[in-house]
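Co-fold these.
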Amino acid sequence: MDMTTEPRLDRDTTNCSIARTLELVGEKWTLLVLREIWYGVSRFSDLHQMLGCPRNLLAERLRKLVDNGILATEAYQAEGARSRYRYVVTAKGNDLVPAVLGLLQWGDKYRADPTGPAIVNRHRGCGAALSVQVRCEHDHHVPAAEMEITPGPGFRTRSDPEPAT
Amino acid sequence: MDMTTEPRLDRDTTNCSIARTLELVGEKWTLLVLREIWYGVSRFSDLHQMLGCPRNLLAERLRKLVDNGILATEAYQAEGARSRYRYVVTAKGNDLVPAVLGLLQWGDKYRADPTGPAIVNRHRGCGAALSVQVRCEHDHHVPAAEMEITPGPGFRTRSDPEPAT
DNA sequence: CGACCTGAGTATAAAAAGTAAACCTAGCCG
DNA sequence: CGGCTAGGTTTACTTTTTATACTCAGGTCG
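Predicted complex below.
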């Protein structure tokens, strides 16, 4: 992160994709719900048992994730029971994998359990372990020191008028 | 994410790097504080002005980040003012870049501002835009469908005794 | 010298979010 | 019919977050 130049303190911070993503998945339990579903847990009671979170929050989080297309419900029926719904991750939800794997990787590096990580993600077939990497379009690895933060088309200052839609 | 096999509902969920990372950076405002500091904002009042968050929370989050080595304080002095401290990101903090860039990338894809992203990250020198990618050790791109979640050395079941340290 | 300004926080009261535990409901089973 | 189960909802209580006011130290101004 190159910050030799002074930051723009008049930057309009309301147009931020990080903040907008966190509005959807930044509340307590949300990413852990996703984790459990990725790990294959899909039923309300099972999620509740694994997470140990309040049932009303679990219901609220699931509703929000479904409303926003990150999860979907899918009918299923256990033998001799009525038809119910299970939760599955959509393609949109799977696009959160890099972010969550980034958190996992950081935790594995800095807050590891003494016995090692509880789970390891591998490339199926190949069997090799995974990592999350920042790369540029020329496929170079980009460490934080070589990142340059530039204004994009949506950059606005605090005094800029909102663009007319 | 391959979940053809039934999930282990007796899995001990307390050994999880995602959860441990979120304990440090998952509270409201924390990742946005980091964002501002990455963008070059480093003083308490400036952070407060950019974020618009409560001052006591800002102080609390900064303290926690510093206590955990994600940020550090650094003396500085503006001309004709007493020496004060500014906040800078450490190497440990910079290792959160993939996770946060993952959130940014998701937001750019699914919750974009109509005028485009406010900021674009580039590889300095090269100038090419960045992306966060999941790769295996053989350098294959790994889409979610090809991820296999396997138990690691720290995997425990709910009934497993805690390993004696 | 003393009044005032500024950056960096603390303190506090009200509002919102999270928690725990009880309650509800629809369909199946006997 | 009565009880069991999965998947929630309700409610009463605690913790966080929010907004705003206050403090404090060092430097400038007159």
